[in-house]
Design goal:
The structure is a single chain. With 56 residues, this protein is an all-alpha fold. It has one domain. It has two helices and no strands. The protein is elongated and about 45 Å long. The N and C termini lie close together (7 Å). 5% of the residues are buried.
């Protein structure tokens, strides 16, 4: 669920920045960064102690 929220948020940021005049590739790199950070956090949660208590 977190990856879906992160990718949706990133795409909204991309559209807003692109409509304000930023280059489309530069704005899309922000989206990619947000999604990669969310994926790293999602994968890193498995190594935390008490991972059974973390909501998915």
């Amino acid at each position: 669920m977190g990856l879906v929220v992160a990718s949706t948020f990133g795409l909204v940021i991309w559209l807003v920045l692109w409509s304000l005049g930023a280059k489309s590739l530069d704005a899309f790199l922000i989206t990619v960064t947000i999604v990669l950070i969310a994926a790293a956090v999602h994968m890193g949660k498995t190594y935390l102690p008490n991972r059974d208590l973390i909501d998915e």
